[in-house]
Amino acid sequence: MKRICVFAGSRPGGHPGYMEAATRLGEILAEEELELVYGGAGVGLMGRIADTVLERGGKVTGVIPSRLFDREVAHTQVTELIEVKDLHERKAKMAELSDAFIALPGGYGTLEEIFEVVSWGHLRIHQKPIGLLNVHGFYNPLVHMVAKIAQAGFIPERSRQLLIPEEDPRTLVSRLRETASSP
């Protein structure tokens, strides 16, 4: 595992723990020499994790759609900034560049991104591990909903296990490594 795609909010959120988690995850990625692939913004949780990885000497690739370049305040100090046509191309490019995925807290965009890659995993389009950094229980309702979907028979148990929730970023990265290396 060399590159991790992190989906995250372009806002800081309403709890200081969200920004702290983005900082901690960025420190761990840099320390473990894992490159960050993310949505390319320099604001919110997205900006915090990118800044942290860069400050620690790590590599950061941002992928941002042309029409969001100014609105999301593109992070122009990243190692590589890839400008794409639209959100669909952004997700495809981030997935192509990455060996695993982590979702920090975020809004509609973060949820949409995580559901797209988990759907691709469900359909076996990829076999990359997908983690949820469950900061202060942020993703508890989602984990419960996925369990309910499986219990109702809409997805098999194997697909329920595609999402790996963890509260601790170091534990989450370790679990993603283990999952990526297992057959």
UniProtKB/TrEMBL annotation:
Keywords per UniProt: Cytokinin biosynthesis, Hydrolase
Source taxon at top rank: Bacteria
Pfam entry (one): Lysine_decarbox
Molecular functions per Gene Ontology: hydrolase activity, hydrolyzing N-glycosyl compounds
Example of a GO biological process term: cytokinin biosynthetic process
InterPro entries in the cross-refs: LOG (IPR005269), LOG_fam (IPR031100)
EC number: 3.2.2.n1
CC per GO annotation: cytosol
Coiled-coil residue spans: none
EC class (word): hydrolase
Annotated family: Belongs to the LOG family.
PANTHER family with a match to the protein in the record: LOG FAMILY PROTEIN YJL055W
Protein's UniProt name: Cytokinin riboside 5'-monophosphate phosphoribohydrolase
Biological classification of the source: Bacteria, Bacillati, Bacillota, Bacilli, Bacillales
